[in-house]
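Need MFS transporter's 3D structure for a figure. Predict it.
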Amino acid sequence: MNPAPMHPLWQGRSLALIGILLLAFSLRSAVASLSPLFDYIERDFALSAAAIGLIATAPPVCYAIFGLLTPAFERRIGLEPLAVLAFLIVAVGLIARSFATNAVLMLVGTTIIFAAIGVGNILLPPLVKRYFPDRIGLITGLYSATMAVSTFLPPLIAVPVADASNWRASLGMWALFALVAIVPWIALISRARASKLDIDESADVEPPNPRVFSRMLRLPAAWALMVGFGAAGVVAYTSFSWLPRILVDTTGVTPVAAGVLLSLFAAVGLPASLVVPLLVVRYHATRALYGVAVTAGLVGIAGLLWAPALAPWLWVLMLSGPTLLFPLTLVLLNVRTGTHEGAVALSGFVQSVGYGLGAVFPLTIGLIHEATGSWTIPLVILALVILTAIPAGVVASRRHTVEEEWERKHGVW
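Structure prediction for MFS transporter:
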């Protein structure tokens, strides 16, 4: 395939670049802004461990379900109009959640938000391909870094804003970013794109070919990537749901300090999103990165179990290690496929099943903690999940595509 001709980055597509980065920012801020405020919310109404677990389960469940439904939505509505609709719903959900008066309404608002964000997750790559076919790597890196910023920034400021006003303002203010994010896309929709932009019309979201998708179930490489992605999701979503409370209970830090430490946990995603793809593509460092992720995660859990107050910041930093598997898996979805339909099928399998796994654990962790009154068993369970990435890393580091693996075992792709 011939590479797309290079064009100046801003020429005729500055609105698209701004729009992509604003969408990326709103994809993660709604996840990271909630858990530091649980103590504040509970002053107004009860949030049981089961309720918090269900709220924490909503993002990955919605990502899994709506990630599969998005191609059908896009075919009916169109790429840019669907982006506008999705993030308008995100804004409405954020506002509705900030006015919740009980745990049920909090869960409903959260579900609305993440259903729309699940659509947004799928839309960003084809938007990049449509407007920047000549700079896919650069723009993907930029929006990945923006997502990382929007993951660590909200927990850093959520509690101070709640202290200065209230938790409702702290939660609802993120709706402004979602509303601003749709402005460039409304402008682009109203513009005659065909005469002003060099757009790749092949970038529409395509549904996975059912025949190719089913082949993923028989390929060890696909399962390995799914396990690694799932392990990262379990650690991330469990941490965003429970880490502040774990830190308050086990280390004695204040809720403000716990929010700062959660921000530290999330901040690892920024350098990782920039460095990990380079290490994989240029230096084939897949196995080493899996090793670093697993080792760091186990060290972090060991510290929280046996010496939590000794160095909470170090244990949190180490616990963030498995999240390296997010950008690692995303780049491997391209590196380990040789055809477009293979990439679509592998991405659909890995992300839908991986997010499904991430949905189960926050609720389970919360229920176990409520039943035992301790964080020991939940942390041990997290350690076991991290250990599953060891065999996954061995398989995922084999340098062949899923198409080649299929042909070697089953014949013509």
